[in-house]
Design goal:
The radius of gyration is 20 Å and the shape is globular. It is built from ten helices and 23 strands. The chain folds into two domains: about 1-55 and about 355-385, Urease, subunit C, domain 1; about 55-345, Metal-dependent hydrolases (TIM Barrel, Alpha-Beta Barrel). Strands 1, 2, 3, 4, 5, 21, 22 and 23 form an eight-stranded mixed sheet that branches. Strands 6-9-10-11-12-13-16-17 form an eight-stranded parallel sheet. It has helices at about 75-85, 100-115, 150-160, 175-185, 200-205, 235-240, 255-265, 315-325, 330-335, 340-345, and strands at about 1-10, 15-25, 30-35, 45, 50-55, 55-60, 65, 65-70, 90-95, 125-130, 165-170, 190, 210, 225, 230, 245-250, 270-275, 295, 300, 310, 360-365, 370-375, 380.
Length: about 375
C-alpha cells in the first residue's frame, strides 16, 4: 500500500523541509522529499501546510484509557496503548510501578506476546522499581519496595527478554551489582526514587547507570545537614555529562522554568520527555489503579497531598508545554519526544526520525500543536485523523 502526504512542513534530522512530501509504502518510509509530484497509485493526503513530525517514543508510562499495565492483562495493555497512540505516541515501553515478582511475570508474559505481533508499537517493558529508597517512595507502593536481590532479578532477566529498562536507587545495598548485571544484558539502568549524592551517583555511573528517572522528582537537590551543604542527586546528574534525563513535561511535575533549565544544561541530545501517565490519562475516568491516588489540578497526587503520583498527560500535551510554556523551539521539543528517547532506548535505527527506510511512525500537528493525524507503522490511527 502506498500513501503520500503532501504540502507539509516536515521535520527531518537536517531541519525543516518546507512544502515537503512523505511517501509511505506499507510500514516503512519510502522517501522524504521536497517534491510534491503525486506518486502514481498512492493515496494522497494533503497536510495543508501543517507540521509533519516523528511519532512520539514513550519510555515511561503506567497506563491510560482507564487501564494500568500493572493489571498484567492483555486487554489492559491494548486499551492503554491505544489511548496514548491517539495523542501521538507511536512507540511505547509500558511501565510497572514497584511490583511483586508474580505481577512482573504476568505483565512480562503479556508484553512478550504483544511485542511479537506484526507492527506492534510495544517495544519492551520498563520496571520502575521495586529496588527504591523507601524514604523517597512518593507514589510507589511501599509494601513492594526492597533492596536489590540477585536471586530475584537474575531469574527474571534470564527468562524475559522483553525487559528493556530497570530503575533503582543506587545507594541501596546491592545496587552496584544490580546495575552492572542488568547493563551486561543490554538493559538500561536508571537512577530513581533516591537520596544519592555525588559519590553514590559517580559510583552508579561507573557500574552502568546512565539515565535518571523523572528528573527532579523523587530525588533531592542541593540541601543542608546541620550547618553544612551538600549536592543532591540533581546536581550530581548534571555534573556527569553523559547521563541522560527524562522529565515529566506537564508543567506541574517540573515547572516550565526548570524544563528550560534542563534543556539549557543537558541539551536536546541528553534530555527527553515522558508522560509518567497513570490509568486515568487519555480517559474520562477519574480513577487511578492505585486507590491512594486522587486527580487534582490536572495531575495525580497521593490523597494526603504529600507527593505527586504520576500524570494525566499525553504526548501532545508534553510538546505543547515545552513550546508554549518553557519556550523551547518546536524542532527541539519534537526531538525530545522522539529522537532522544529512541536513542536512549537503542531503537533509533528504526524509530525517532523521518528518514528513508525507517518505520512509518509520524504525526501531523496544526499551528496550535494539536494532533490532526497519527500514523503508526504506516497505519492511520483513525480516531485522531481529522484533516
Amino acid at each position: 500500500m502506498l500513501t503520500q502526504i503532501i504540502n507539509a512542513k516536515i521535520l527531518t534530522p537536517q531541519g525543516w523541509l518546507n512544502d515537503g512530501s512523505v511517501i509511505i509504502r506499507d510500514n516503512k518510509i519510502l522517501e522524504v522529499t521536497n517534491c510534491d509530484l503525486a506518486v502514481i497509485g498512492a493515496e494522497l493526503i494533503d497536510a495543508k501546510g501543517m507540521y509533519v513530525v516523528p511519532g512520539g517514543v514513550e519510555i515511561h508510562v503506567h497506563g491510560g484509557g482507564g487501564r494500568d499495565f500493572m493489571e498484567g492483562e492483555e486487554e489492559a495493555f491494548r486499551v492503554a496503548v491505544a489511548a496514548h497512540m491517539k495523542h501521538g505516541t507511536t512507540s511505547i515501553f509500558p511501565t510497572l510501578s514497584s511490583s511483586t515478582v508474580p505481577m512482573i511475570e504476568a505483565a512480562a508474559e503479556v508484553c512478550t506476546k504483544l511485542m511479537n505481533e506484526p507492527d506492534s508499537p510495544i517495544l519492551g517493558l520498563h520496571l520502575e522499581g521495586h529496588y527504591l529508597n523507601m524514604k523517597m517512595a512518593g507514589g510507589q507502593i511501599p509494601e513492594n519496595i526492597k533492596d536489590p536481590d540477585p536471586s530475584e532479578y537474575i531469574p527474571l532477566i534470564e527468562k524475559w527478554d522483553c525487559i528493556k529498562r530497570w530503575d533503582a536507587a543506587p545507594e541501596l545495598p546491592g545496587a552496584m551489582q544490580f546495575g552492572k548485571y542488568i547493563t551486561s544484558k543490554g538493559i538500561l539502568a536508571s537512577v530513581a526514587h533516591t537520596q544519592a549524592e555525588f559519590e553514590e551517583i559517580h559510583a552508579a555511573h561507573e557500574n552502568g547507570y546512565t539515565h535518571a528517572t523523572h528528573f527532579y522528582n523523587a530525588m533531592p537537590g542541593f540541601h543542608k545537614r546541620r550547618e553544612y551543604k551538600y549536592e543532591g542527586t540533581v546536581e550530581s546528574i548534571y555534573l556527569h555529562d553523559d547521563f541522560t534525563v527524562e522529565v515529566v513535561a506537564d508543567g506541574i511535575h517540573v515547572p516550565p522554568t526548570i524544563l528550560r533549565l534542563v534543556y539549557k544544561i543537558k541539551g536536546v541530545e541528553r534530555a527527553c520527555v515522558i508522560t509518567d501517565a497513570l490509568a486515568c490519562a487519555a480517559s474520562d475516568s477519574n480513577t487511578a489503579f492505585d486507590p491512594r491516588v486522587i486527580i487534582e489540578d490536572g495531575v495525580c497526587k497521593l490523597a494526603d497531598r504529600s507527593a505527586l503520583a504520576g500524570s494525566v498527560a499525553t504526548m501532545d500535551r508534553l510538546i505543547r508545554t515545552l513550546v508554549q510554556k518553557a519556550e523551547i523551539p518546536l524542532e527541539d521539543a519534537i526531538r525530545m519526544a522522539s529522537e532522544t528517547p529512541a536513542k536512549i532506548m537503542n531503537v533509533y535505527n528504526r524509530k525517532g526520525s523521518l528518514q528513508k527506510d525507517k518505520d512509518a511512525d509520524l504525526m501531523i500537528l496544526d499551528n496550535e500543536l494539536n494532533i490532526r493525524g497519527v500514523w503508526a507503522m504506516g497505519k492511520i490511527v483513525e480516531e485522531t485523523f481529522n484533516l
